[in-house]
Every structure is written in structure tokens, then in C-alpha cells.
Write a sequence for this structure.
């Protein structure tokens, strides 16, 4: 069971895992730094505690730690209880959600392992915005995508903002880098997947047509704005588009992905 520890000392060294979360060069979730995983809010903390990521500690106000008591029954880590004011001084901003948890990173499967047990995967290129990464993972978890492969230029899915926006689903959906890029797509094809590049190009097949073909599909998605590079498009087996009303030529990448995930997952279920 978690050990409840009360403290009102903002300088308590036991809280260092939570310190200065708004200071870019000191953030504990930077991959080049300590690489910790940070969960915010009771829903996301619960998902962290239920995941393969080994928890280190919690920090929160009394009410939020109490809400998590059932989830902490078998978790032998300290849960630091303090006031909202002290918590804000430690983390560097006022945290409306009232609770944080930190964990170490867990070993990730490699791309071949994910492909071997999947029917629909998302392959991302150049998605460097942490909020878009988080939204894509949330959509993937909700709509039946089995895994996410990260091509060149993608942000870290375990960055605090990505974890928060995904509502903790980056901790549930397996992901791995796909290298080299874009020739790594040959590994996807060799595993029995058709690589479908999502693009607004007029000469693309409609998403519903391609989904109706059946089979295992890797949906290739590009960054907000520029979209996929020419090299990635050339490496795909088929270009697909979402038909839209006149006057609208594109969607936010996370919204487009949600539509595509639904169509593809429905086709294989």
C-alpha cells in the first residue's frame, strides 16, 4: 500500500521528481534528461498505476489522494500530501487537477513485435506537436488501433503534455520508432500490411473504398499543415482521402485520424 507522507515544505528534496515542471531545461520528463513519465489528474494517474510504467511517487492535495486510495492499495510508493499552494510552488504553476504521479519509463516493444500482433496500426511522420501526438493516441485507443509507429520528426509520446492530452492512453497503446525512414516502411509491408497514406490529393481513393478491401492496414499520417513528405507518399501502396464538402480541403490531423481509424477498425472487426 502507498505510504501517505504529509509535508508543507516546498523545498522538501523528496519532491524533486515534481519540481519546476514549467522550466524547459529542468523538466524531469525530458527524454535527454531524467526521462520520467508524469501523469496529471485522477483519471490519468489511475491509468498510470494500472500500466507497465513503474510508479515512483505521487503528490497531491488531501482530497485527490483520498480518491485514489483503492488504486494505491497495492502500490508501495510514497504519496505526498500537501496544500494546493505548496504544490504550486513545487511544480511551478497552479495545478487544477490536484494530483500528479511520476513513473520510470517501461521497456517498449519494437516495431516488428507490434506489427506481428496487429491488424491496424498508425504510422506517423513529422508529428512534432505534443498535443497532436496526445490526441492521436487517445483516438487510437478509442477506435481500435493496435499500435503506433513513429517515423522521422515525431514528438515524444511520453512528454507530459502528450500524456495529459491523451488522457493517459499513451500508456496503453504500444508504440515504437520505425527506422530507417521512410525505407522502414518496407518492414511494415513485409509483415503483411498495406501502407495507406492519408492525403487530400484529388487522385486518391476514398477511405471507405480502401477500408472495404479488407486486410491489415498501416495508416500513414503526416504533420499538421505540410502533411506527408513526397518520399513518404511515394513509399505507400495507396493514397487515401476523406471525402469532404465543397470548400473544405483538410482536417486537423487528429480529427482526420479519428475518421480513418473508425473506418479501418470497423472493416476488420
Amino acid at each position: 500500500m502507498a505510504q501517505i507522507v504529509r509535508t508543507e515544505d516546498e523545498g522538501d528534496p523528496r519532491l524533486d521528481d515534481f519540481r519546476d515542471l514549467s522550466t524547459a531545461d529542468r523538466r524531469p520528463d525530458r527524454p535527454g534528461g531524467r526521462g520520467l513519465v508524469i501523469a496529471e489528474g485522477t483519471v490519468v494517474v489511475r491509468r498510470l498505476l494500472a500500466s507497465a510504467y513503474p510508479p515512483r511517487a505521487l503528490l497531491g492535495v488531501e482530497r485527490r489522494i483520498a480518491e485514489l486510495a483503492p488504486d494505491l492499495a497495492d502500490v508501495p510508493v510514497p504519496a505526498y500530501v500537501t496544500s494546493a499552494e505548496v504544490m504550486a510552488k513545487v511544480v511551478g504553476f497552479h495545478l487544477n487537477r490536484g494530483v500528479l504521479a511520476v513513473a520510470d519509463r517501461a521497456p517498449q516493444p519494437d516495431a516488428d513485435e507490434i506489427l506481428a500482433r496487429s491488424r491496424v496500426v498508425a504510422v506517423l511522420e513529422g508529428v512534432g506537436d505534443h498535443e497532436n501526438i496526445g490526441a492521436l493516441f487517445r483516438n487510437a485507443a478509442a477506435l481500435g488501433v493496435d499500435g503506433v509507429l513513429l517515423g522521422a520528426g515525431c514528438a515524444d509520446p511520453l512528454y507530459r503534455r502528450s500524456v495529459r492530452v491523451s488522457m493517459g492512453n499513451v500508456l496503453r497503446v504500444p508504440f515504437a520508432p520505425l527506422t530507417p525512414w521512410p525505407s522502414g516502411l518496407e518492414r511494415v509491408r513485409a509483415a503483411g500490411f498495406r501502407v495507406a497514406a492519408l492525403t487530400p490529393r484529388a487522385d486518391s481513393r476514398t477511405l471507405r473504398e480502401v477500408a472495404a478491401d479488407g486486410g491489415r492496414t498501416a495508416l500513414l499520417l503526416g504533420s499538421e499543415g505540410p502533411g506527408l513528405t513526397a518520399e513518404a507518399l511515394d513509399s505507400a501502396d495507396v493514397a487515401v482521402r476523406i471525402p469532404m464538402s465543397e470548400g473544405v480541403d483538410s482536417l486537423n490531423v487528429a480529427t482526420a485520424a479519428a475518421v480513418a481509424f473508425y473506418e479501418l477498425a470497423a472493416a476488420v472487426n
